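dumping this here so i dont lose it
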């Protein structure tokens, strides 16, 4: 072999290596325990970092309020975020799927949404139905997974809260009989501001898988790499 050809031949494997998939991901600007924290210490963030070492992915984090993250995903200003599966979201985003259903084996984790009431209150949740609620309203934020479940249960909903903190303020001010929030968020707010005044009920309203969801146009452009990254997420979680 001619020596002058050796550097070119040695360079071929380097040229063949695929560039990392660059993903601009929106993270909520407040703690969303245990999944995400603005400082990057959430359990889902650790899963994504470990998966990125298995499948070449470079994540750029953008921090924003929850609903701004969703709007930026819809418009393509960001490529990805963490979210539960809601049918309406599939109009502009892609989830890991299997047989036309979300593939729970490729979720980054699970989140519970729980009911809280004022201390000494009689409103209860037994895992199937509310007790002693009647037509009293339940406070929550709009557009979240559990709102549809509350409607199915024929619950009067007040979804005017812009944040979980506002939902708990509504409860403390007797504007609603109970609130539904993400469990970790709710526990932190109660412990910080309403200890002894508000109690979280022990049985979650709903527990749901959380996925790395990507903008639909971005997925169409990078489908093979995104699918491989979702597979890497499954590998990381199954190795725990």
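and the seq i came up w/
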């Amino acid at each position: 072999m001619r020596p002058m050809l050796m550097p070119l031949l040695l360079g071929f494997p380097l040229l063949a290596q695929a560039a990392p998939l660059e993903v601009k991901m929106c993270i909520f600007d407040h703690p969303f325990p245990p999944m995400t924290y603005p400082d990057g210490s959430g359990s889902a963030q650790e899963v994504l970092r470990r998966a990125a070492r298995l499948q070449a992915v470079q994540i750029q984090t953008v921090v924003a309020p929850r609903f701004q993250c969703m709007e930026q995903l819809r418009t393509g200003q960001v490529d990805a975020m963490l979210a539960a599966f809601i049918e309406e979201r599939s109009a502009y985003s892609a989830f890991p799927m299997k047989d036309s259903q979300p593939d729970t084996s490729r979720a980054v984790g699970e989140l519970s949404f729980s009911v809280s009431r004022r201390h000494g209150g009689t409103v209860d949740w037994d895992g199937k139905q509310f007790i002693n609620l009647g037509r009293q309203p339940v406070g929550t934020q709009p557009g979240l997974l559990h709102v549809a479940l509350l409607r199915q249960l024929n619950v009067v909903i007040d979804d005017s809260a812009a944040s979980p903190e506002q939902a708990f303020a509504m409860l403390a001010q007797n504007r609603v009989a109970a609130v539904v929030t993400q469990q970790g968020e709710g526990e932190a707010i109660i412990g910080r501001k309403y200890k002894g005044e508000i109690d979280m009920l022990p049985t979650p309203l709903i527990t749901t898988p959380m996925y790395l969801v990507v903008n639909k146009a971005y997925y169409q452009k990078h489908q093979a790499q995104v699918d491989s990254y979702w597979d890497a997420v499954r590998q990381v979680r199954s190795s725990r």
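The chain has a mean pLDDT of 92.
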